[in-house]
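For practice. Supply one:
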Amino acid sequence: MTEVERGGNDGIMEKKKTRIAFIGGGAMGEAMAKCLLTKKVAGAQDLVVSDVSLVRRELLSREYGVSCLADNREAAKNADLIILAVKPQNLSQVMGEIKGLSPDQLALSIVAGANLATLRRGLNHSCLIRAMPNMPAQIGEGMTVWTATDETEPRQKKLAQIVLSALGKEIYVADEKYLDMATALSASGPAYVFLFIEALIDAGVHIGLPRDVSQTLVIQTILGSTRTVEKTGKHPADLRNAVTSPGGTTTEALLQLEKGRFRSLFLEAVAAAYEKAKRL
């Protein structure tokens, strides 16, 4: 991995290659490893992945040239950063297996619903990062919100930032409560967007467009609209008004959406997801 500066015994900053261990080689673990390699944040020799599945270990070793192990503790032993990318139901067992990390090691969890208190207790470790990426991280276009314990050193936070930025955009928040909110908005958000895309494509087919044409129109319209918001910096309402002519076709369509409580349903959906995230 990109060399990270460390304080030497004589006060001189020295550089050392950073080793990263992935505990869990499923979809998100693979996505993170792939992004680190693709964006040249790390080399294959800097990564090790542990997974219970022989099929997954063979696939990851073959596709990315990374070292793969079946033993979680062995994988974590010499790593500077340990990324927990397992299913929530397996977290307790995994934490018991790698418990006893050294103070210099940083643990970063992307496990949904596992708060810092749970990680601290399960690992008996205090240098911790909790991150909530979303599915587009699989293609390097993700949105990750993350936080850290007070004991996490600045250099460790910098390391986490470098790793998470390889997945797309990242935002650090000082208060952990925002992670549950991010779970409901950005982590679950791709599903809302995919449903909207699907519905809009079906609407195009309903009025007579060939499905492939409708899909192309919808995807480019959403991409272009999103980039317009990003690049102009204008409020979405201002941009919507610019498209909406008095008494026009857009006005008629928006009227039907408002009749169907489009905004309210989105608000209620995200609020329900947030309440669920807090209960996990």
